[in-house]
Q: What sequence folds into this?
């Protein structure tokens, strides 16, 4: 009980600090970076659901971000559909394509999912690039800021709060899913699909619904990104970008939701802070990936990851000292 | 009332020229502990797989709870009340013990995605029900102190209990145990025997594969002997242990070792 209270207090302090940020940080560049962190956090969380929980590998998340972006941007900016509907449609559109790919796998095999996601992401990029009438091709197009009943979120602070709100909602929803029979089914089929099927879990059905649910959140993040950057073009939805997003989830720790936010934070902020880190980011990330896979496959906050190791090391040392 | 729960009729299973099961006909009652013995490679595990939807029999029929289940999936068997454990333990290693048990309750938890995301009263009530039931089962098995430990890091014997707990959590009518004492010492084996008797009293019928004859003699109501995929005989433990054919095929060999 005491431990729970402590956790709760830390949580409250953290939330208050996060809410106060726009009052302390008035530099709009910094706020923009933080918005990016939050958007990528949602993407990393959705990847965590697919890769960390249900144990499938997805190399094409950026395509689903793109589907959410384009859908929401076109509905809102071009067709003047009310913002909240366009925004949700972005998520649903992405989920729809998630369902289509998932169905392909359900009736063949989920072993092909990784390859299918790579192929699909290339197809999407080509469509974004070449369907001028709708996407304006490689030139991209300007999008508008979110608008509720005539009230436009055009200041950095208002955008910060909007991103925060969406992140909190997505986080809570994903957290609840992972703590339910759905999340347990995902982990079970990841750990041992035969035992899972003997426990009454329809393995393919749950792999499919995990992919669809995650795609919804990816699409929401995409929609958020489109209205935050106010400009979209196909260059943002490449396989490189997919890999970067995957690395965020892996660095933070597969299976840890706070880890996904941490991973997104590190991989968004470091290249912003250091010019060198930005220029060599592909190299650095490659090296980082190798080191992670060799020495800390569970990432920073995953079960048995770096954080757990450090904690147990400190506990051990503390224990030894007490014994002496 | 005694009734047939799992009926196998003329089950055959072929693997590329090898007749792993050859015309096996058995009828398990819903109130018994039924033993299956036979030397290594006799086809015991193959029989379990064939009558639980994992690998369809090459020919023959399976009836589970009075319905034809020959072409059903493992999933459908589970939903209708079959649970099993595995010869090579299959716990969910990166999940805690209590999570493992809750996975066993999967089919009993009646909530949908909307309930979960909105955290409705129904969702909370179902999770609470699951938590209580799993606690009760962990106490029954004596593994409550491992509740929040990852199953993959537990000792072998405890993992076996976690597997049994997961099976029990689904409220099965029949539970299949594939060599549950493998890797256990004398004491653990005897404890497990008592446990299986207590499981039988809780409700499910038990079909158990085992090598240890002493264990089986004390435990089972009836025993079937399998040799090279063929059914040698079915009978009470004393009938089985006094049958010269069985002694030659199985018991004799054991003594040579
Ligand atoms: N999937 C398979 N493919 C080919 N042969 C198999 C397969 N599974 C089992 N067998 C063979 O079937 C026979 C029976 O095996 P099994 O049922 O595991 O025996 P046991 O009675 O020891 O459990 C063995 O000869 C084994 O090699
Ligand atoms: Mg076997």
A:
């Amino acid at each position: 009980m005491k431990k729970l209270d402590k956790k709760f207090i830390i949580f409250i302090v953290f939330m208050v600090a996060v809410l106060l940020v726009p009052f302390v940080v008035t530099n709009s560049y910094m706020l923009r970076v933080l918005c990016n962190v939050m958007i990528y956090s949602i993407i990393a969380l959705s990847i965590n659901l697919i890769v960390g929980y249900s144990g499938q590998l997805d190399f094409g998340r950026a395509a689903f971000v793109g589907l959410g972006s384009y859908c929401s941007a076109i509905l809102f900016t071009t067709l003047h559909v009310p913002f909240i509907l366009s925004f949700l449609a972005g998520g649903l559109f992405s989920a729809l394509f998630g369902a289509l790919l998932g169905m392909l796998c359900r009736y063949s095999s989920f072993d092909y999912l990784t390859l299918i996601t790579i192929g699909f992401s290339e197809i999407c990029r080509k469509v974004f690039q070449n369907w001028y009438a709708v996407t304006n091709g490689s030139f991209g197009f300007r999008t508008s800021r979110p608008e509720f009943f005539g009230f436009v979120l055009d200041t950095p602070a208002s955008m910060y709060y909007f991103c925060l709100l969406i992140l909190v909602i997505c986080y809570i929803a994903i957290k609840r899913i992972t703590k339910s029979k759905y999340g347990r089914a995902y982990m079970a089929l990841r750990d041992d699909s035969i035992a899972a099927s003997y426990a009454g879990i329809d393995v393919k059905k749950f792999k499919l619904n995990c992919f669809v649910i995650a795609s919804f959140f990816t699409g929401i993040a995409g929609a958020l990104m489109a209205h935050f950057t106010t400009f979209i073009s196909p260059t943002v939805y490449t396989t490189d970008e997919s890999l970067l997003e995957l690395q965020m989830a892996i660095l933070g720790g597969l299976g840890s939701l706070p880890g996904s936010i941490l991973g997104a934070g590190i991989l968004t902020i470091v290249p912003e802070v250091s010019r060198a880190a930005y220029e060599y980011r592909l190299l650095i990330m490659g090296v980082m990936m190798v080191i992670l896979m060799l020495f800390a496959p569970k990432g920073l906050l995953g079960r048995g990851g770096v954080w757990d190791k450090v904690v147990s090391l400190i506990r051990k040392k503390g224990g030894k000292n007490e014994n002496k | 009332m005694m009734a047939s729960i799992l009926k196998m009729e003329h089950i055959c299973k072929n693997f590329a020229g090898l007749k792993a099961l050859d015309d096996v006909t058995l009828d398990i009652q819903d109130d018994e502990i039924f033993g299956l013995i036979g030397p290594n490679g006799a086809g015991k595990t193959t029989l379990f797989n064939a009558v639980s939807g994992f690998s369809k029999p090459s020919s023959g029929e399976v009836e589970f709870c009075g319905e034809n289940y020959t072409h059903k999936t493992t999933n459908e068997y589970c939903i209708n009340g079959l649970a099993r454990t595995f010869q090579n333990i299959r716990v969910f290693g990166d999940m805690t013990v209590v999570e493992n048990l809750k996975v066993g309750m999967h089919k009993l938890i009646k909530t949908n995605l909307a309930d979960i995301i909105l955290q409705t009263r129904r969702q909370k009530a179902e999770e609470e029900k699951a938590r209580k039931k799993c606690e009760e089962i962990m106490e029954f098995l004596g593994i409550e102190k491992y509740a929040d430990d990852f199953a993959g890091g537990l000792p072998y014997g405890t993992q076996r209990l976690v597997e049994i707990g997961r099976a029990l959590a689904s409220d099965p009518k029949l539970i299949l145990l594939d060599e549950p004492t493998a890797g256990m010492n004398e004491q653990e084996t005897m404890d497990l025997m008592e446990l299986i008797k207590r499981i039988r009293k809780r409700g499910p019928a038990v079909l158990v594969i085992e090598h240890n004859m002493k264990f089986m003699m004390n435990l089972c109501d009836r025993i079937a002997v399998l040799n090279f995929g063929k059914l040698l005989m079915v009978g009470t433990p004393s009938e089985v242990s006094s049958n010269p054919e069985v002694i030659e095929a199985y018991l004799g060999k054991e003594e040579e070792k």
